[in-house]
Input
Amino acid sequence: MSELWIPLMVVIPLICALFVSALSRFNKTIKVIALVVAIVIPIIPFLSNYGLHIFGGFLPMTDSITGMVYHPSIVYSFGVLQKIFIVILGILAFLVLLIYINKYKKASGPYIFLLFMGIAAVTALLLTDDIFNMFVFFEILALAQVGIVAASSLDNNYEMALKYMILGAIGSPMILLGVGFLLAITGSVNITDIVAAIRMGKVAITSPVFLMSCGLIFFGWLYASGLPPFHTIKSGMYSKAEPHASALLQAFTVISMVSIILIMFRIYSAVPIFEALLVVFSAIAMILGVTMALTQTDYRRMIGFLAVGELGFIGLGIGLGTQFAITAGLFQAVNEIIITASLFIGFGAIAYLSGETDTRKMGGLIGYYPKIAILVLISGLAMAGVPPLNGFQSKLMLVQASLSCGYPELSLLAIIVSIATFVVFVKAFYTMFLRPKPNTLKISNKKAPKSMVFAMVVFLIIIIVLGFFPGIVTTGISQFAGGLL
Output
C-alpha cells in the first residue's frame, strides 16, 4: 500500500497550487497551507516504498505473437535517485517559501501557485516512465518558470520572460515531434516499452526516423537545460527573478535536465554519436559559462553564467557513460542545486541590504555584514571545488572518471574550469566585501532577513556534511547508475 504514496508526490503540490490560487484572498490561510505542504513534500519519499505505481490499475499486457510487453497506462517509477532529488527539492521549497512569506506581508496566491506547479512538474519529470507524460509536465514547468519571472518586481523581467516563452515555442514542439516519431516506430510512449523494442531489434538504431527523434528531443533538452545556444537566456532568467525564486528556478533546471537526459540515455545510448554529443555540448557549456561569468559586473548574471557552466559538469559525467562517471555527474547535480541556491539567496540578501547589484559600485561590505560574507564565501568555494566541501568531491570524481575513460583532456578541462570559477568568485568577493567602500555606496541600517540567514546556514550544513560524507548520496546514486547500465 505504501506505493500509493508515489503519485501523491505530484498530486499534493498540484492540489496545494489550486487551493492557494482559489483562496488567495485569505492571506494567512494560504501562507499556512503553503508552509505545511512544503514540510510534507520531503517527508513523503520516506513514507513510500521503492517501486512502480500504475495509474488506473491497468496491468502490463503481453503480445502473444511478438512477446513484447506493453504498459497501457501511465507508470511512475520511484527509486533511490528520485528520493534524493525530491527530498532536496522539498527542503529548498520550504526555505524559499519561508523567505518569501517573511519578505512580503501580503502573499500572492498566483505566485505561490506557480511555485507549487513548478515543484509538481519537476517531480513528475523525475517519476514518469511515459515520454508523452514527460512532455506534458515539461510544458507545465516551462510556463511556471515564465510566470515566476514575470511575477518578479525587477526591471525588464517581462522582456526576459517573453524571450524564454518564445524560445519555448520552438523547443517544446521539437520535443513533441520527437515523441511522435518514437510512437510511430515503436507503437508506445512508455519508456520501458520503447527501450525493450530497441533491445529486441524491433527498431533499427540507424533508422532516419529514430535518429531524427534523437536530434529533436536533444534540441529540446538543450533548451530545458539552458546549455548552449540557450545559455544567455537561461542566465538572464535567473537575473530577472527574485533571488529566492532564482534558487528554485535553478533547481527546476537541474532536475529537468537530469530527468530528460536519463530518459534519452535509456533510449539512445546505443546510438554511437549520442554520448559524444553530450560530452561536446557539456564541455562547451563549461567553457562558455565561466568565460562569460568573467565579463559580468552584475553578480546576478555572474552567478547565472557560473550555474550554466556547472551544468556542463553534470552532462559530462553522464555523457562518459560509465557507472562511476554517471554517479559523479548525478552527485554534481545534487551539489549544484544546494550550492547555487545558497549563492542566489546570499547575494539576494546583499541586494536587499545595499540596494545594489553592480560590483563596480560596491566594496567594504564585510565590515557591515560579516555573517553573510562568510556564508557566501563558503558557498562560492564549494562551487569552485575547494576541498573539503561537497563541490570538491563531485568534481574530483568527474576528473577521475574522465581519466579512467581515457580522456585526460576532459580531466584537464574540468580542472581549468574549476580554477577559473575560483578566480571569478574570488574577484567578485574581493570587489564586494574586501576592497574599500566607495563613497557613493550608501549602507542602510537594515539587518539581513533571518529567513535568508537560516536558509544559508541549512545549505552550509548540507555542503559540509556531503563534503565529508559523500557516501550519504553517492551510494544510492551508484546503485541507480548500475541499474541504468
In short: The chain is about 75% helix and 0% strand. The radius of gyration is 22 Å.
